[in-house]
Amino acid sequence: MELRIMGRAMVRRRSFLKSVLLLVLNILTKCVWLLPSPRNVTIKSINMRHVLKWHPPPSICSTTMYNVQFQGEFELSFLNGSWEDVPECQKITQNECDLTVDLSSDSDYNVRVRAECNNRVSPWSELHKPFNRRHTVLSVPDMTVTAMGDSLIVTFQNLPLTGGVIVTEWKTGEELRTKTHVIPVDQKYLHITSLQEGAEYCIEAHTHLDSHSMSSSSTDTQCVTITGHTAPWLKPTTAIVAVILVCLLIALFGLVVHCNPESCQAYFHKEPMPASLRMDLSVTISKLQLPKEELNESIHFC
């Protein structure tokens, strides 16, 4: 009986040692063959453009590729917590991924990235905390103000993908009487008409997201003087056209004055009257009642 008990204990001990050995070998194999994970995974969101960035892991591979996945509230609630591939960021070589299209709702998103090289993959690296696009940063728009006649043309660049631009206008000396213009971001310009000639007008603007009650800082104030109803580019154009017309008239007058008779006849040739018309005219005149002294005279036609 004792021998049986001792035999069973030895079998259990050997089984335990075998399991421990397999576990150690598995850990060592993973440490050797798994790639290190990407580091410092962050999202930079400016003007509703969301870009995931990370630092590449140390690797002996010549080319390391990356795969990116996201998980939103919909995946958590209705897809059993599954992760979705970002189609544009599978097996990419750059260390960033544009997630603007994929993170398209005002919900929290988890995002992760892993490295891949020579059929080896790294563990996933996730964001430290979920991302929500409501945390985007609105930058000050680039604004240019140009006077054209009695109007102002205000153009914008560096605008967010959604929202609007709020423009404030006032005349110098009447700062308390401001006007506000709201334009969508896809328009990118504003035309202000019927302004007072000789007066100076000032413009400020900032971007605004109605859905998130967010606004950017205001641009620097730009003031422009209204020069007149004639656009500045119109004066040189009118002068050029006038000079061309005068030159054409002088050339035409000189051609007529100095034209040779033979050359003039060649250029300004008078077509002869058709014979049928000359016959009809002769018959018509012969039937007229003329004085007798004129009947004997013959009628000649050129």
Using only CA atoms, what is the Rg? 44 Å
What's the helix-strand series? HEEEHEEEEEEEEEEEEEHHHH
Quaternary class: single chain
> Could you describe the largest sheet, including whether it forms a barrel?
5 strands, antiparallel
Structural shape? elongated
Overall strand count: 16
- Helical fraction equals 25-40%
Number of H/I helices: 6
Distance between the termini: 157 Å
The fraction of residues assigned to DSSP E strands is 25-35%
Overall mean pLDDT: 81
Give the low-confidence spans. 28-32, 294-302
Concise synopsis of the structure shown:
With 302 residues, the protein is of the alpha+beta class. It has 6 helices and 16 strands.
List the defining traits of the structure above.
alpha+beta; 31% strand; 302 residues; single chain; five-stranded antiparallel beta sheet
Question: What would you say this structure looks like, in words?
Answer:
It is built from 6 helices and 16 strands. It has helices spanning 2-33, 73-78, 234-257, 261-267, 275-286, 292-295; strands spanning 39-46, 49-55, 65-71, 84-92, 96-98, 110-117, 120-121, 125-126, 142-148, 151-157, 164-171, 179-184, 189-192, 200-209, 214-215, 222-225. Strands 3, 4, 6, 7 and 8 form a 5-stranded antiparallel sheet that branches. The chain is elongated, with a radius of gyration of 44 Å. The N and C termini lie far apart (157 Å). The model is unreliable at 28-32 and 294-302 (pLDDT under 50).
